[in-house]
Amino acid sequence: MQDGGEVLFLDGVGEVVVSIGRSGLSLQPLHPELVSSCWSSITLQPKLENKIKFSDVYAIELLDKGPICGPWNTRTAIQGKKNIEMHRFVIHGITRTRKRPSTWVPCEYIFGHKDLKTCKNWFERLMACINNEGNRPKNLMVFVHPLCGKGRGVRNWDTVAPLFDRAKIKTKVIVTERAGHAYDTLASLSDIELKALDGVVAVGGDGLFNEILNGILSSRYKASYPPTPEGFGYFESDENCEEQIRNGLNCSVRTPDSASTTFPGNSSKCDDHEPLLSTSQPTVLEIPSQNPSKEPCTGDQDHLVSFPNDWFRLGIIPSGSTDAIVLSTTGERDPVTSALLIILGRRMSLDIAQVVRWKSSPTAEVLPTVRYAASFAGYGFYGEVIRESENYRWMGPARYDFSGTMVFLKHRSYEAKVAFLEIPNTNSLTASADDVTGAQPLQSRHKKSRKIICRTNCFVCKEASTSGQNSEDEITDSSRKICENSKWVWSEGRFLSVGAAVISCRNERAPDGLVADAHLSDGFLHLLLIRDCPLPLYLWHLTQFTKKGSDPLSFKFVEHHKTPAFTFISSHDESVWNLDGEIFQACEVSVQACRGLVNLFASGPEV
């Protein structure tokens, strides 16, 4: 439906007929011959389109009476332009460029009319339309890391905070004072307090996001442990494949309720954690009243928050060293774009890896500890780089390059066994230990399959995003279907690294990421096993990640398996894992992909 339209003055254009439709505002210049292309060069003003979508409008404001400019053209530029004093209102929206469609740029349309009542009427009508966009957040908790990226966290929040104010979004801003601050704050929130929020935003890097993720899920996600191969032996009764199938991909005896879920706040620092000031003072929170858009609670049970759900979202305003999660989910490492995605309430499901450590060292007793990762879990080379970098924190982000070089030159390999669930038709690339010699061809002879890259409205991820999964039982049903046709496969030997990518892990050093065709919400991990090989070959493999369009996983000493779960066992005394940049000591772990476990303020990279 569309109204008959009304004539308003649009700054830089002149008189336009404006009408409200179901999905946006239609504009028709009365004198299109006077509308010059120069209008698109005016600061903050986009190229004139005939429609402004409500989904692209993040704020509307009434302005004081002021000047409205007529159309810009050569004649008025020579003769001089006369501004007209009018009552005004402004529509704040977004625009994109063809060269960088993933980057969102704020723009504004200033409308004027000689009658104040007319302007107020348009303002109220448009505000009603915007308020009907029900997915937009009203209350957010924001954690700002003050030292990440050499202070970029505070600067970036100062840049985007006015956008949230303009959109009338309430923000509770907490500047972190120590490692683990965000985790402790969120883990201590009651479900009633958490339900009063529409989401939590990290102004930092992947490490701060990981801390927030674990703080929210540690006591609220009640799924069982990942499946393990027969004979793994850490359960109170034998579990065979039939019993695992009967319980989806989850073990039926022990659950994370009985496991340790502590976060190493003061001992382990993430890739964004500089030496923060420690504090013993608890954070005092003033949580706004519960969002009236949510259904009223009728009892204590209704206040419980569980995951996955359809309303709570996490956001990131990139300010870290690599920002792989933001680059993989939005396509841009731009704080303004990320802020606008949050304000406009974009939503997509994101897979999360559940990591269970059984033993921290070969001689340690069995003590299950649960952690979660959103982008990557890596052992060997990946873990050693993070551990080595802790000695050079004074170098800032450059410590990763230095530490990576030091670890690479040591060229250490590790004896390990890995068991993974093999799913038919997942195009795993495998190589036996006997194939990995300097005399063998450098790349695998496996036929390459066409890669399907995850983008906005990805059909692979769409099923999880639109299926309405909002309970653990539904995830278990989905897992059961996968498990029915799967089998455990063992791979053992000496490995330079073992890694599991949840998403593509794109970053500025690796434009295609670790796995170019990894999807954001398909329920799979990409297990990367790098077998021991000569140093020059390993260097060749690593350099391929820096080249867009290359295939670093095609070498014969590289195994790539697409799997929902795997188990890792090592006898190394100081086995260290890298979870989203967090150090995690473990010699025996089980990992599973939790499909669409959380929602993100994102929509995927644009095509």
UniProtKB/TrEMBL annotation:
It is an enzyme of class 2 (transferase). InterPro entries: ATP-NAD_kinase_N, CERK_C, Diacylglycerol_kinase_cat_dom, Lipid_Phosphate_FormReg, NAD/diacylglycerol_kinase_sf. It comes from the Eukaryota. Its EC number is 2.7.1.138. Its cofactor is Ca(2+). GO terms for cellular component: membrane. It catalyses: an N-acylsphing-4-enine + ATP = an N-acylsphing-4-enine 1-phosphate + ADP + H(+). Residues 135-359 form the DAGKc domain. One of its GO terms (biological process) is regulation of programmed cell death. One of its GO terms (molecular function) is ATP binding. PROSITE patterns: DAGK. PANTHER family: CERAMIDE KINASE, SPHINGOSINE KINASE. This is Ceramide kinase. It comes from Urochloa decumbens.
